[in-house]
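Quick one: co-fold with pyridoxal-5'-phosphate.
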Amino acid sequence: MHKRTFLKSITLAGLSLPQLGKAMSNNIPVNPIGDALIVANDESFWKSVRSLYKLKPDYINLESGYYNMLPEETLNNYLSIIKEVNYHASFYMRTRQFNERAAMNKLIAQFLGGSEEEIVLTRNTTESLDLIISGYPWKAGDEAIFAEQDYGAMIDMFKQVGKRYGVVNKMVSVPNIPKSDEEIVGIYEKAITSKTKLIMICHMINITGQILPVKKICDMAHKYGVEVMVDGAHAVAQIQFNINDLGCDYYGASLHKWLAVPLGVGVLFVKKEHQSKIWPLLGENDSVQGINRLNHFGTNPVHTYLALQFAINFHNKIGAANKEERLRYLQQYWTSKIATTPNIILNTPTDAQRSCAIANVGIKGLKPAEMAETLMKKYQIYTVAIDGAGVHGCRITPNVFTSLEELDKFVNALKEMAA
Ligand SMILES: Cc1ncc(COP(=O)(O)O)c(C=O)c1O
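Sure, here it is.
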């Protein structure tokens, strides 16, 4: 029996969800019962999951890191809900919209294991985290810490508050293959001074897929009275966790990544005790209190938020534990085959607690951009080149629809290119 803490499976029952007409559902052998580590290589189950996607035949998609394509079921239900909202038009916007959005908020709070009072839907990770960085009550000379491997949009916002309020930014670097959790915790701890207010860390570093020891970093930072903001863009619905167990102060993620919600849905968690001190990004409305105070609530594509329920349904049908173990299995399947191949450099730790679907691989003497181009042009394998912050290679991101045959083709391509 494997020992990871599993998020309690959530149910959609008990929530007053939008009346959507007839939501479509495919018949897959749902949520196989048993140890997820065994389900991870049940190829007939994963073949049936693959059949639920409309995949392009032109190339092998190993770039699910940007966003996860929707299975046909979610896509069709999303299209129906767009029509439904359009049909009721302004009447919908002035009446049903509010309760139905609130129901989605409740769903994502349940999904993350947190409280509705601390979680709100946004458009994406950038909006969630930049809202905190820009709205933090900075004073000149305050210090912030983040890593060069963090996402550019957040680093840009730290630079902006540096210019605007005199915040001093300290950039650390996380090793691609760390020796221990303590090594990583120590890197952040060394950068703390009496002026440090906020540390930003990635739950999973996007360019390598490395999972950081979030709880240990938060516990260390809190000893110094420093708050921690976590970038969970890649963690939500790829790996299982309960948001309260992380011990962080702020958490932002994009749900169009691993939860496969249509493009443009994110989430923000702010601990209750911090909510009132953060300035909203857009004009504050005095009648809106709590975490909703932080969320810009102008007219927006509400149907996209409503599609959250279909995405969670699909995720639960596969099973969160089954999905996580399958994704890790796929990554370990290909990384183990090239581990000792000359000229190949793996930039991701492969032990189970440090990575899942995503890994990054480089080839000695080959620029990442050339590597990605050759993979696509010669082998019809789509990846993304990463060339910076100490990471030089292609990010490889399989998904639940990826087959072992596709990974075999990728491994053969890598070996040919490295030879
Ligand atoms: C670690 C990380 N943070 C933030 C983002 C930004 O996500 P979004 O563009 O959905 O805001 C990404 C996008 O890939 C990411 O990988």
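If it helps, The radius of gyration is 22 Å.
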